[in-house]
Write a structure and sequence with these properties.
single chain, Immunoglobulin-like, 10 strands, 128 residues, five-stranded mixed β-sheet
Length: 128
Amino acid sequence: MCCSVLICRHKALIRKGKKNNSMLFMFSVVKITVIDFEFGKDSLPLSIGQKRTIEIPNLPEGVILESDDSIQLATNEIDGVTTLTIMAAKTNKHHAIVARLGENGPILSTMELEPFWELSSGHPLVGG
């Protein structure tokens, strides 16, 4: 995230009678905040029905994390580090977590979720 300041100059004509006109210059200062965020990884494997926790350092203010209803998300922020707990309920569709700038705002980053079933022998079976 970075900030910049844009200074604009405006001019206005001030009339003081028929012949005495003055030019007045006014300045406006506009603060522009640019928010940039990426998850840092393109995908995340998840064992179905098991919670997985990841840490997201320095999640910018105003950025919300969301997914579809079949993914359970919980966030907790302590000392600038957001802890994201994720659990997949099913594998029968495409899953992703998106980072948005505010509710229904533009998407800043997407992380694909790769749910899989874990067999009792301890070997994963990739779901789809």
